[in-house]
Amino acid sequence: MASSRIVIVGGGFAGVKCAKTLRRLLPPENCDIVLFNRENHLVFQPLLAEVAGASIDPDAIAAPLRQMLPGVHCRSKEVKSISLNEGFVEFESYEGNLLQMSYNHLVLACGEVVNLSQIPGMADHSFPLRTVGDAIRLRYHVIRQLEKAEVCKDEGRKKCYLSFIVLGGGFSGVEVAGEINDLVRDSVHLFENIPPSLVTVSLVHPHDQILPEVTPKLRDFSRVEMEKAGIKMVLNKRALLVTPEGVGLNDGSFINGATVICTVGNAMSPIIERLDIPKEHGRLVTEADMRILGFENAWAIGDCAYIINSYDNKPCPTTGQFAERQGKQAAENIVRAINGQKTRPFRFKPLGQLCSIGGHNAVAEILGIRISGFLAWFLWRGVYLLKLPSWARRVKVGFDWAWDLVFSRDLAYPKTNETERISKAYYRPGDYIFHQGDPGVNFYIIESGEVEILKSRKEGEMGDVIAVLGSGDFFGEMALVDNKPRNASVRAKTPVEVVVMGKNVFTQISSSLGPLRDLISEAVRDRRARQ
Fold first, then answer.
1. Closest to 130 measured CA to CA, from 89, 172, 185
2. pLDDT of residue 528
3. CA atoms of 291 and 283, how far apart (whole Å)
């Protein structure tokens, strides 16, 4: 057995670079290196927007950790807790048991997580973009919206299907807005019933300029070029709520759209949040050499760490180029600490920034040189192609990009019957949850707020309010029981959050649970008597 063990928590850019460097510097017989990561692959996040926009295939940006890190013990498990004082991590086995693993040195590189709870309704009605699964789901959803719009007869509903809203004007928001805009506008000519004028892509950003990381001149170029491509800029406004119909803003306005993409709302990883040690802006405070304050054998790197760059004495930004350099230098410092040598402070001169804005355009700052337009886009693709973690991935992505230049983007998506589940939905006052005459597909339970039941006698009438339901009440059961269209409309009277249960799930639970079945039967009898 090796005489020591180094545990790395997190398989992103920082963790992988640290593990790779440690394995190169430390012989396997002297040191075990164990890397914990929830997924068995590294996600090359700069190209997630390209996956969502159908420019490249998903597997090209997911690099298997075991193939990348020979000699490193990779565990596809989530670390549940850490004891910095006693020197062990705790994780769950596949059988559900909690196991402990001791370490001589610990490296925390677990990054941040998506927090969709900051805005009401965002968790229920928006698409995050953090994992390969997120990108695939968004890609198929966009294509599905085109298919819906093609057969939709209602002009308002068709426009809603073709309206896409991106929250956040940083790198991720700008890149995904550009990719979605390119995907949709390049594809509408294949659909007979979709006029290009109905397509809308909106970018919502709380400041007066997008891309705060680059110079004002490049920001202006990005905004102008994206507006030329058809992207609507909604600046100096914040999202206050998200519903199935779109996004409500802080000035009282509302943007209609059936697709909301969220690139904001990062938060501390739960395991970092549980550590009772100093934090700054939700990140672990470190010494100059990336040791966690107060600990000689615990280190923090990447997005979860608040590291001061000795090059300019400023906190390091949460970008891939900084994460990789932190991983490499942390590994070198660990080896120095093991050998009794003096560690060195983190120091790195940024190389620049790159951002694709769609339409074969990009902006770039490389070593102080500013480039925009097609040349910057070509440079952007070249840099990221070389940064991919293996030649296999580079060949795959290069082939996809070459294909994309000649042929149309792939609009195929696997149309499968998704397993019904219990979910939640948020509605603002005045939103219709369903209309009279709609097919009965869901059962609803009110968690908070109130809804109005409206009944119309003639087609096209708004209808009269016949009942008001509040927290703890339920609705939607009559159409499911009778297997008929909805006989009334339901509209949110106040901000309301409901639990949504699919028809099959509703049938299984109500048939198995006697008290619920009796309660629903009684409610159906009472509501029929009032009609």
1. 172
2. 65
3. 13
| Token pair of 383 as six digits | 């840099």
3 state SS for 181-237: HHHHHHHHHHCCCCCHHHCEEEEEECCCCCCCCCCHHHHHHHHHHHHHCCEEEEECC
Instruction: Please report the pLDDT score of residue 516 as a whole number.
Output: 66
pLDDT at site 531: 59
Q: What's the pTM?
A: 0.85
What contacts 99, CB < 8 A, 6 or more positions away?
90, 91, 92, 93
> Mean pLDDT lowest for which of 146-155, 332-341, 481-490?
481-490
CA-nearest of 357, 129, 299, 165 to 244 is 165
Of the CA atoms within 13 Å of residue 250, those in its CB half-sphere come to: 11
State yes or no: pLDDT of 168 exceeds 80: yes
Q: How far is CA 437 from the centre of its chain?
A: 35
Please identify which residue in the block is written with the tokens 């020979």.
70
pLDDT band at 368 (very low <50, low <70, confident <90, very high): confident
| CA-CA-CA-CA dihedral for 181, 184, 186, 188, to nearest 10 | -140
pLDDT-derived band at 228, boundaries 50, 70, 90: very high
Q: Residue 67 — φ and ψ, nearest 5°?
A: -75, -30
Query: Residue 291 corresponds to which tokens in the numbers above?
Result: 């040791």
Looking only at the bridges linking them, the beta strands covering 79-83 and 88-92 are: antiparallel
The Cα–Cα gap between 21 and 310 comes to 21
Task: Dig out the tokens for 480 from the structure.
Answer: 């499911």
Strand partners, 489: 454
**Higher per-residue pLDDT: 114 or 93:** 114
